[in-house]
């Protein structure tokens, strides 16, 4: 699994020169483990200090069930802290931590303070808040951002130096430094500029590594293409010269780089947060110049953001485990059986149960769950068990403590796809006699996916991944971002089957064509829908839906966010009939995700209400006597919503499929990932999964409310 962490290690060696960077004791402490401190996100409660342990610098396990180890509200002026950087002092027994004082849900990205912290046991911390414009009103009264502080020991001055980035009224973010006072409760000097980009670009997330008489300042270049750059100096506080090129090994957007040295090794790890894709990249180096990706060696049972790492002793590790090595959900790293839907395992610490969903057809009378626990926890039960007669007891043990869970196994078909997908479109291919699902590839921060996949099935239950069918960065010339909400249709033209794929890219709608439902699809070369309809001032040009009217034989394309628009397509299916644009009125509940189908003389229009990040995202409908309206909106038109008792939330953006030659219908939709989505805040809106349930009708043609199921 790809890791998420961003670490800045500050005491890796007993070698004196390394101590200038990493801070260490001259006494012979033996370091055996790594402590990683981090925060988890931008939502409520996520900007807080967390701990994790590793014995090798590659595999990390969270402490305290991934809950904060320090109360952000007690130590900050904002209510949130981010970017924790931890340093062992030169005495070997004092620890220093600095954090950004920022609570994004209320402040956005503007803040004014950082927090200085001090401890002798890694458990109990004193703290001081340093508000820069209040402390230095003359020099820095116009500061609007105080980000990502770090600490390094300056041997020549015998003082701890803090460095961080600031943004003022004019110019970009610049990295500054100041020395801490003796008791680490404030700044002893007025901040000075440490590094200013020669290209006048913003510089944030600075991290200094000392090697071979040189200080290597890694930082994020916030503009000029973005990425991790480096400046080098033979002095700690001045003379940094920016080097050529970028040091990240990816084309993804990155931030929060950090570097640390492995125990008893001449190797360093440089890592950075690929924040838009929700992953981290780890690279290894010996010279701080050439880096090799080592992602395949990294694992974590949590999802951290910007943080740092120090080496710790066995005694320190045992003290942390005694305090926060709890027996609970985070004790379980993985459930290894290929039959298990791993994202959907529910560990309930309150009632001591574990719900294991498995694929249809799994022999639950002869199943090895393949449970793996964190290193300090063992389990009394292992191997093949019989779950067909009910729950099986599993006891986990750590030292003198133990906890028993009742583990039950259930054949659940939802979600129907493994992994994160959303906005599902479904068709039936008469050519191949199969169903095809076309979803948004999800799990990317801020909906930043750039490719589309498709899946095939003969029974709506068992799905085969047919791979990527359209990659914006490779296959589309007019857009390379935000691959969202596709739809597709099978057409027989002059006796030959063709497949037309309408997709959102960069908030515009394109069309691609293929000879097979699984592609490859060839883009038309330009967007089909690129502008808002006349008179529409808000919303986005997204969420296409294609509908072939069985009555008239005409083809219609619907789209819109905040408005519902429709056009008639020409017979070529890739151009719009002149003067055919029309705006429909689905009422105030309409947000996005139009879906149109025809049954027994009625045209049905379905749409999603609220925001995809909301637990209350849901589906309503209207009917019409025409594919272009007007719409008749039933008084009770809500047909799909959350099922709190089952932990199902955010049910929306659907498509509908009729089993050929029957009156059997199904609705295909996405929901928050279960069970973790409801705890993810707004990030649940891009960590979604695809489900299928029955769609049924009353005798008068009205749609019955759908029961979302597992």
Automatic annotation (TrEMBL):
SUPFAM superfamilies noted in UniProt: Arabinanase/levansucrase/invertase
A biological process from GO: xylan catabolic process
N-terminal signal peptide: 1-30
Keywords of the record: Carbohydrate metabolism, Glycosidase, Hydrolase, Polysaccharide degradation, Signal, Xylan degradation
Organism superkingdom: Bacteria
Keyword Hydrolase: yes
MF annotations from Gene Ontology: hydrolase activity, hydrolyzing O-glycosyl compounds
PANTHER family: ENDO-1,4-BETA-XYLANASE, PUTATIVE (AFU_ORTHOLOGUE AFUA_2G04480)-RELATED
Family: Belongs to the glycosyl hydrolase 43 family.
Identification of the protein by name: Family 43 glycosylhydrolase
